[in-house]
Amino acid sequence: MSTNHPYAGILTAVPTPLDAEGRFTPAPLKQHIANLIVAGADGIVPLGGSGEYIALNPDDRLRIVETALEAGAGKLPVIPGILPPGLGDAIAAGREYVKAGAKALMVVTPYYYRPTQQGIVDYYRRFSDAVDADIILYEIPYRTGVSLHYETVDKLADMTRVVGIKACNPDLAQQMRAAELAKSKIAILTGEEDVLPLHVAMGAVGAIIVSSNLIPKQWAKVLRLAMNGQLAEAIALHATMRPLIDAMFAEANPAGVKAALQLCGLDFGGLLPPLAAASDTLRGRLADILPALTAREAE
User: Fold this and answer.
1) Which of 168, 185, 240, 286 could form a disulfide with 157 if both were Cys (CB 3.0 to 4.6 A apart)?
2) Total domain count for the chain?
3) What residues are labeled active site?
């Protein structure tokens, strides 16, 4: 994807493969990233919510980052997630991932304390001063209870290493204001795949999403159409993907994507507590949906 931003296009939030005992197993992740590279993925994001960051221990998180960077082999950005609520843990993880080779990090808004906007600015400024990496803001208020005011996004774009935002705020008016202020400075990346064409119309240059684990080429086409101003065509293609998008989030993510990958022949194992594996109902739903989509992906 050609834009003025170094982080743009379809960046895939990859799940974490686990063995029967719940331990990280590298081989499926390596194979999956290799497949995504062949499919033309624009970036890989391990250790987001889809990667079960919160449920993993620090040693496994570092191994996942190392594995993803090795599999990426410098062919595309690998942007690990940083999801702890506290600054000390966030800085420690960020420094480890940079030492392993990461050039950019996706850092969630600080949560639990419900900080003020100035507190958020101070948090990211201190992280930016302490960790030598590009920063993608990760705003997901329905998980964290914390929203980024559009003026805060603009301020962070001016005073920190922030180069992008994964915007999962369902308030489209808020997203539009943020894009109006900051889209010339940072990459606006939607995290809401169910409204991706609309977010591109407002100024987004890409996405960090989970269903691109399964149909990356179709997502790339939706994005290309939308960015070329062919919004009606983008929306029409997006509508054909709606059943998969809905299924991905019918149960707690990443249950859907792990079940779908298994149905496609790549076993990522189960989920760590308190999450649960996909139900038989969801697996049956995915089994009905996937054949037509994967056949189109192979065209």
Assistant:
1) 185
2) 1
3) 138, 166
